Amino acid sequence: MLAEDMEVPLLNNLNDNGDRLRSKGKDVFKEQQKESESSMESPNLEFEYGDTDTLVAELSELYSYTEEPEFALNRDYFEEDFRSHARGRRWIDLSAEERRTYVMRLLDALEVTDRDKRLKVARAILYLAQGVFDECDTEVDVLRWSRRNLFLLYDMGIFTALLELLSMEMDNSQACSSAVRKPAISLADSTELRVLLSIMYLMVETIRVQTEDDRPEWRAAREAFKNELGAPLYNGEPFALLLFSMVTKFCSMNAPHFPMKKVLLLLWKTVLFTLGGFEELQEMKVRGRQRLNLPPLPEDSIKVVRAMRAASPPASAMELIEQQQQQKRGRRSRRPLVKQDSLDTYNERDPFKNDDARDEEEDPEDGDSGMEGEVDPLDRDVIIQPPPPLLRPPAERVNFPKGLPWAPKVREKDIEHFLETSRNKFIGFTLGNDIETLVGLPRPIHESVKTLKQHKYMSIAEVQMKREEELQQCPLSLGEEEVEETPAETLYLGLLPNLSQYVIALLKLLLAAAPTSKAKTDSINILADVLPEEMPITVLQSMKLGIDVNRHKEIIVKAISALLLLLLKHLKLNHVYQFEIVSQHLVFANCIPLILKFFNQNIMSYISAKNSICALDFPHCAVHEMPELTAESLETGDNNQFCWRNLFSCINLLRILNKLTKWKHSRTMMLVVFKSAPILKRALKVKQAMMQLYVLKLLKIQTKYLGRQWRKSNMKTMSAIYQKVRHRLNDDWAYGNDIDARPWDFQAEECALRENIERFNGRRYDKNRNGDFAPVDNCLQSVLGQRVDLPDDFHYSYEMWLEREVFAQPIEWEGLLADQ
Q1: Cβ(45)–Cβ(686) under 8 Å?
Q2: Residue 637 and residue 25: Cα distance in Å, rounded?
Q3: Residue pair 560/509 in contact by the 8 Å Cβ criterion
Q4: Which of 241, 509, 587, 751 could form a disulfide with 494 if both were Cys (CB 3.0 to 4.6 A apart)?
Q5: How many Cα neighbours within 13 Å face the side chain of 733?
Q6: In which residue ranges is the amino acid composition biased (Basic and acidic residues) (predicted)?
Q7: What pLDDT is attached to residue 189?
């Protein structure tokens, strides 16, 4: 009743003053439209997606703010030892040979048995890796000396020594048992591990990054280090496997003191270094297509995405009023105003408000009302009144280039399906997989097939699947497959025995670090390497720790999302069934609902979060004087428009979700069942083209299942999908006529995929299996002449064995003759 009571005076007021309000409103909004049309582009988030953030940002995220006092401790231990060696001289004043001599001395000191002395030496090495900041005046000098020192440390063999110490600390049962018994774990429980992992991370991240002024010996060292990390040199396993085992040990509660943030960052950067980033991946893909004699890629996807612009903001209020008047003239209705959906739910008072009630209206299972239901009276009032310019930016139009950004693609399966349908319709029978014979089909069908073949795209994955099918059918004639020993192959071979444990452990950490997760007593504690020994007692200390904890969780999400995406992309290029087994483990471990749960928040607030204190970031805090921190300065944070790591994490998670659901009907239906459409639509508020692209892809694959009313209510989203997402010819994504989506086949689809994966792994990696095609010796003399190794005591029990195994066994000769 309240809504109806408020509705009538509002309509009367609009009718009584209609001419005056309409003329005034039109003048105002026409001016706004002219301004918006004259502007070039709508304001986007100035975000450039890449493998990592800047080197300074990546190095600063290694350290928690509670670790800041340890910088001075590292310096003190270094100067205490260095003073006795150099006597009044500084590190930057030494010659190259003197530096090598001193590093060799530190390397020898790492061999001592005294744990405390080893820790002091490790801290001195960490100070060198951090760039001897006490002898530098600017942050640039710190980074330059850090780079020089790290290449020197690698050249002197420090990394191998640190690896041995890391293995010792991992196997330190005393530290593990004491950590398990402690009620609260803090920074002090992981001191040795944090120092070792920090040095190793600095080495991997700094040596990984190429610069123009690198010396030739540094370039050679980089390649050597890359090969060393990717090769199975550490106990027959690559270095990444050691870090994966640390993750599983932590998640199984056997080592709750492990500093997980540092482990995950080092694991991500190790995989990135050894396997390569996104641009290297694109180059590998081009080379792989050339090797398989496939046509080149229609475009460079990285360049296309970078050239995209974000979608336009919601429609202006003037357009809403005009639509209102048209509807009233067409039919008298009690529904006074249609609140348009423009990428998509948009609250006039707060553009980024998380309105759960509105999302429930949008859900297709709750009536498919979309955004065409009645508008809240307060919203209605705001829409009709001209909005103040501070609360809402003027509507702007994006000038899309002529043509679509992506070349359309067609799979061979699509052409076969099209010809099968056409032959059934015009001839009455089919020819199987024949896509060449067009006899009896009318001329328009010939033209259609010609167009489809022009855009036919054969992926590397399809070639690999066909080749695997041939190897399974003809194992003898085709012989053994030659497997190239790539870093991805080596890593997969190491991951395979415990792959499910690694996947579950990573998803457990992702769940614990997600901002939407509730604190539970049985969840794992990921704050072991951020909480100080003494908890804060003042409001300022509590605020600082709260920012540190939120930042800590954001960095963990960033590392896990980037790591999973890298693994999926590299394994898919190496062999599609390696990608499929990791994908299936992720799906079975509830990765899809986990990512949707992550996005079921005020995503704009998450992306614009300011959980950082610039004055405490390394190397700024090591070079400059520490300013006095106040509650106001902590609340203000930095002046950035968005948080790079959070936007990076969101895009990575969306890309993972796309990889898991692409061409998989059962997993697409999971998106529908978990009601992902309103969650994903909220993510479209983020004005960043790449993020919008992957959200639109996820909406496109489930559009046909959301119902006609949803599509009718979300035409702006449908238009954006058409403009930004690649077209698959013959794909009726917008109509819902999918004959392949039979719900009873969903489980069978996953089972068939699992069977293909197991056959692939058995053929390629199980060398001890008793194959059906193993050669058999049929010659009686050679079989009897083979020497059989018998145990030494066999001749003592030979007669008993003969009696039991030969004479006591009845032989039914009649039955044997009858069978023959």
Answers
A1: yes
A2: 39
A3: yes
A4: 241
A5: 21
A6: 346-356
A7: 84
Rg, Å, the chain Cα set: 33
Say which amino acid occupies 20.
Answer: R
Cα separation values, 391 from 41, 63, 352, 388, 735, Å: 19, 38, 11, 6, 37
> Which pLDDT belongs to residue 744?
54
User: The dihedral of CA 633, 635, 640, 641: what is its sign?
Assistant: negative
pLDDT at 29 over 70: no
Q: What is the pLDDT of residues 346-403, one digit of tens each?
A: 333 333 344 343 444 444 333 333 333 333 333 333 333 344 433 334 434 444 446 7
Mean pLDDT calculated for residue range 542-555: 92
Which stretch of 20-34, 457-471, 517-531, 554-568 has the lowest confidence by average pLDDT? 20-34
Whether the per-residue pLDDT at 562 is higher than 90: the answer is yes
Give the residue carrying structure tokens 């009302």: 369
**Taking CA 701 as the corner, what is the angle to CA 700 and CA 705, rounded to the nearest 5 degrees?**
100
Q: What average pLDDT does this structure show over 278-289?
A: 94
Q: CA-CA distance, 588 to 591, in Å (whole number)?
A: 7
Residue 260: CB atoms within 10 Å: 30
Select from 621, 634, 552 the least CA-distant residue to 70: 621
Q: Which residues contact 556 (CB under 8 A, 6 or more apart)?
A: 260, 261, 264, 509, 510, 513, 526
User: What is the secondary structure of 335-366 as a DSSP string?
Assistant: -------SSS---SS-TT---HHHHHHH-GGG
Rounded CA-CA distance 567/572 in Å is 8
Can you tell me which residue has the tokens 């870093």? 487
Query: Which among 470, 462, 355, 457 has a CA at the least distance from the CA of 406?
Result: 457
Residue 140 DSSP label = H
In whole angstroms, what separates CA 616 from the centre of its chain?
28
| Residue 769 DSSP label | -
Q: Are 270 and 202 in contact (CB under 8 A)?
A: no
Domain coordinates of the chain in residue numbers?
Answer: 55-290, 412-455, 662-776
697 SS3 class: helix
For residues 22 and 745, give the distance between their C-alpha atoms in angstroms, rounded to a whole number.
56
Q: Residue 675 has which token pair?
A: 């009601």
Distances from the Cα of 711 to the Cα of 339, 363, 672, 715, 736, angstroms = 15, 12, 14, 6, 10
Q: Which carries the bigger pLDDT value, residue 709 or residue 782?
A: 709
Whole-model pTM: value is 0.80
How far does the chain reach from its first CA to its final CA, in angstroms?
91
- What is the C-alpha separation between 239 and 502, in angstroms, rounded? 15
Find, among 570, 566, 553, 568, the residue nearest to 645 by Cα: 553
Alpha carbons 767 and 770: distance in angstroms, whole number: 9
How far, in Å, CA of 397 to CA of 41, rounded?
A: 7
Residues whose CB is less than 8 angstroms from the CB of residue 673 and which lie 6 or more positions away in sequence, other chains included: none
Give pLDDT, residue 349. Answer: 37
CA 363 to each of CA 376, 711, 714: distance values in angstroms, whole numbers, following the listed order: 17, 12, 12
Closest CA to 672 of 414, 368, 374: 368
Asked if residue 412 has pLDDT above 70, the reply is: yes
Burial of 351 (0-12, 13-18, 19+ CB in 10 A): middle
The Cα-based distances of 205 to 60, 197, 200, 210, 571 in angstroms read: 12, 12, 9, 10, 22
